[in-house]
Design goal:
The chain is α+β, with helices and mostly antiparallel strands. It is built from 2 helices and 5 strands, in the order E-E-E-E-E-H-H. The protein has a 5-stranded antiparallel β-sheet, covered by helices on one side. A hairpin with a 5-residue loop joins strand 3 and strand 4. The protein is globular.
C-alpha cells in the first residue's frame, strides 16, 4: 500500500456511518475488515489488534481495493495482507 493514512478515528466525513464491505480475515494477531464511508464512498481498512483490544483505520487506494476485493484464500491472502500492512 502506498503511504497509507493510519488513524484511530474514522476521519473522512463527520457523522458518517461505516458500511461493511468485506471481512478480509486475520494474520499476525490483526483482524482486517474492509469498510466504506456512507457519505463519500471512500474505502478504509479497519485493523483490530487482538492482543491489545485496540484498532486503527487505514485508507485504501484504488489499487489496494482491487487487491483486497480479490484476496486469495488461505496462506496467500494472509501473506498479501502482511505485505500490504508491513506486518
Amino acid at each position: 500500500m502506498s503511504d497509507p493514512v493510519k488513524t484511530r478515528e474514522w476521519c473522512c466525513c463527520a457523522g458518517s456511518d461505516q458500511a461493511f464491505v468485506a471481512d478480509c480475515g486475520h494474520t499476525q494477531g490483526v483482524e482486517f475488515t474492509l469498510l466504506r464511508c456512507g457519505i463519500c464512498g471512500r474505502h478504509w481498512m479497519s485493523l483490530w489488534f487482538v492482543a491489545t483490544s485496540s484498532g486503527i483505520y487505514s485508507s485504501v487506494d484504488d489499487k489496494a481495493l482491487t487487491q483486497l476485493l480479490n484476496l486469495p484464500e488461505g496462506r496467500k491472502g494472509r501473506r498479501l495482507l502482511e505485505t500490504m500492512y508491513d506486518l
